[in-house]
Write a structure and sequence with these properties.
523 residues; five-stranded parallel sheet; five-stranded antiparallel sheet; 17 strands
Length: 523
C-alpha cells in the first residue's frame, strides 16, 4: 500500500509530490512526453534565414501549425508540431459536450503548464475573501514554490495587486514597443490612476539568471514551437527530478477512472492504455490533481452521479489590439519573447470588479495565425500583418470567473462531460481602456476587440469549492472532500472564487500546503 496516490502531474500534482517526497508515493498519469526534436536551436528569425525549409518544425507533416485555419481554434501555444503532444488525444480520453464552452485538457506530463504563460501572481486578501484560508496560510508555501522555480519581475506599482515577492530575479527585457508604453504611462500616471488603471512589469516563472541548475532565458522566440525551454518552469521538471532521486514512483500510461474508499485505504481504478485492462492501486490517501475537469469527472464517476450539476468558473477574456501608427513598417525585433511584456490592472469608477490584463508582442505567432483577422484578401492580410506586427501589441484582458446557476458541469452516463457557461461583455472596461491608451498614442476601437470562446483561458476552477462548512461536493480548508476520509482535492477544482489573474501559482502553493498536512498525518 502506498502512503499516497497522486493522480496528475501538472502544477498541483508536481507540488503534492514535492511535499511528499521520500514517502511511499505513487504518481499516476497518462503522461505524454514531447516527441524527439530535431535541431531547433537559436533564434527563430535567424533560423528562417539560415535554413531552406522549416516546414516540419513550424507547420508539420499533418499541418498541425495551421490547425486554427481549418479546425476550431485552440491556443496558439498548443498547435505547433512539437507542442501538439500537450493536447494529444484529450478529446477521446475525456470527451466534452458544450455549445458555449471550448474546453481543452492535457494528458501530458506536466499538464497544460507545458505551454502556460508563466504568469505568477499571489492571491491577495481580496482574492481569498470567499476562501476558508487567508494570505498567511498560503504565504510560506508561495515562498517555497517561488524559491524552487525562480520568478523574475519587479517590485513596482503592481506589488499591492500581486503580493510581495521577496526574492525576485531581474525582470525580463522589454521590447521597444512595451518600453514605450511603460514610459508614456509613467508620464501620465496620475491621469491613468484616476481612471483606475495601473501598468507594471509582469511576474514570470522565467529565469533571467541561472537558477537551480537551469539556464537563463535566451530571447529566441521559440516558445510556440519548442517544448521544455529550461528557462520557463514546467512541473515536468520537478516530477522528473523527484523520480531521478528515487523520491517518488511515477507510472505513466494510466487513465484514472474512479476510486473507492475501504477501511484499509482508498482503492484507485485506472485503465492501462497500452493493454486496455483495468488495474487497481491502493493508497492510505488519494490526492486528486488531474486538473479541474479531470478531477471533477473522477469524483462524479466514483459516486456514479449522472444528475448533479457542479458549479464551474473560468476567466472570460477580451483581446484588444493596440496600434502605434509611427511604427508601421519598422524592423521586427527578432530577439524577443512571446511571453507577457506588461501587466495592466483596471478597476473602473463604481465597479466592484478588478480586471487584469497582459500586453503581448506579436513576433511569436506565425503570420498565418492572423490570416483571417483583418477584413481583406488573404494576400493583403499577410502583407498587412508583416508591416503591422512591429506596430501592434495585444492586450489580453481577463475578467473574474462568473459564478451563476447557469454555469455548470455534469457527467453523462456515457462518460461525456456536459459544460454550460454563459457570459457576455458589456464592453465598458474595453472602451475605457481604449480611451486611456489613445491618450498615450496607442489606437484601437471597440469593434476590433475579439472575445475568445469561454474555456479559452484554460483557467478552470471551482467545481468542488473549499468552504468553511463543507457539504456534498465541497472540500474543507484542509482540501479533504466532504464525505470522505482520505480523498483530497488540490487543483483548481477546490477554488472558492476565481479572480482575474492566473491561478497556477496559487494552485502550486495550495497543493503544497494540503500535501504537507497529509504528510504530517503519516508521521
Amino acid at each position: 500500500m502506498y502512503d499516497a496516490v497522486i493522480v496528475g502531474s501538472g502544477p498541483a500534482g508536481a507540488f503534492s509530490a514535492y511535499a511528499l517526497q521520500g514517502r511511499n508515493v505513487l504518481v499516476l498519469d497518462v503522461g505524454y512526453r514531447p516527441p524527439k526534436i530535431p535541431d531547433l536551436e537559436g533564434n527563430l528569425y535567424a533560423l528562417r534565414q539560415q535554413r531552406e525549409d522549416l516546414f516540419e518544425e513550424l507547420i508539420g507533416s499533418e499541418f498541425e501549425g495551421l490547425h486554427n485555419i481549418y479546425k476550431r481554434n485552440i491556443s496558439l501555444k498548443l498547435k505547433a508540431p512539437y507542442m501538439s503532444y500537450i493536447v494529444r488525444n484529450w478529446a477521446e480520453l475525456m470527451p466534452v459536450q458544450s455549445r458555449n464552452f471550448e474546453a481543452v485538457a492535457s494528458f501530458a506530463l506536466g499538464g497544460l503548464a507545458n505551454a502556460w504563460g508563466a504568469g505568477v501572481f499571489r492571491f491577495t486578501a481580496r482574492d481569498l475573501a470567499a476562501f476558508p484560508i487567508n494570505v498567511a496560510d498560503l504565504e510560506p508555501f508561495y515562498d517555497e514554490v517561488s524559491n524552487h522555480m525562480g520568478i523574475s519581475g519587479a517590485d513596482d506599482d503592481l506589488a499591492s495587486y500581486f503580493g510581495a515577492e521577496p526574492h525576485l530575479l531581474p525582470p525580463m527585457r522589454l521590447t521597444r514597443l512595451a518600453s514605450d508604453i511603460l514610459d508614456r504611462f509613467r508620464i501620465r500616471k496620475a491621469e491613468f490612476e484616476h481612471q483606475g488603471i495601473a501598468i507594471g512589469r509582469p511576474r514570470l516563472a522565467v529565469l533571467t539568471e541561472p537558477h537551480n541548475g537551469r539556464a537563463a532565458y535566451q530571447y529566441d522566440n521559440l516558445e510556440f514551437y519548442r517544448p521544455h525551454n529550461p528557462a520557463i518552469y514546467n512541473p515536468a521538471f520537478t516530477i522528473d527530478e523527484l523520480v531521478a532521486r528515487n523520491q517518488i514512483t511515477l507510472r505513466t500510461g494510466y487513465l484514472v477512472h474512479e476510486y473507492q474508499e475501504h477501511e484499509g485505504g482508498v482503492e484507485v481504478t485506472a485503465r492501462n492504455l497500452s493493454t486496455g485492462s483495468y488495474e487497481k492501486f491502493l493508497g492510505k490517501n488519494l490526492i486528486l490533481a488531474a486538473g479541474t475537469l479531470g478531477t471533477s469527472k473522477i469524483v462524479l464517476e466514483a459516486n456514479r452521479d449522472y444528475e448533479s450539476r457542479l458549479p464551474i468558473l473560468d476567466n472570460p477574456m477580451a483581446c484588444i489590439p493596440l496600434f502605434r501608427l509611427s511604427r508601421i513598417g519598422a524592423p521586427l525585433e527578432i530577439h524577443d519573447s512571446a511571453l507577457g511584456q506588461l501587466n495592466v490592472i483596471y478597476q473602473g469608477p463604481n465597479s466592484p470588479e478588478l480586471l487584469q490584463g497582459t500586453i503581448y508582442g506579436t513576433t511569436g505567432p506565425l503570420r498565418s495565425d492572423v490570416l483571417f483577422q483583418f477584413p481583406l484578401s488573404i494576400w493583403a492580410n499577410l502583407t498587412w500583418a508583416r508591416y503591422l506586427s512591429p506596430a501592434m501589441a495585444l492586450l489580453m484582458l481577463f475578467y473574474p470567473g462568473a459564478g451563476a446557476s447557469s454555469n455548470y458541469i455534469r457527467l453523462k452516463p456515457d462518460g461525456t462531460l456536459e459544460i454550460n457557461y454563459e457570459w457576455k461583455s458589456n464592453q465598458i472596461a474595453e472602451r475605457r481602456l481604449i480611451q486611456a491608451f489613445r491618450r498615450i498614442g496607442y489606437l484601437s476601437a471597440a469593434a476590433l476587440c475579439q472575445y475568445p470562446e469561454m474555456g479559452s483561458s484554460l483557467h478552470y476552477a471551482g467545481t468542488l469549492p473549499m468552504k468553511s462548512n463543507a457539504g456534498r461536493y465541497q472540500t474543507g480548508a484542509d482540501g479533504r472532500l466532504y464525505g470522505t476520509k482520505a480523498v483530497y482535492i488540490v487543483d483548481g477544482a477546490c477554488f472558492s472564487e476565481l479572480p482575474a489573474k492566473n491561478l497556477t501559482f496559487t494552485i502550486m502553493a495550495n497543493a503544497l500546503r494540503i500535501a504537507r498536512k497529509v504528510r504530517t498525518s503519516l508521521e
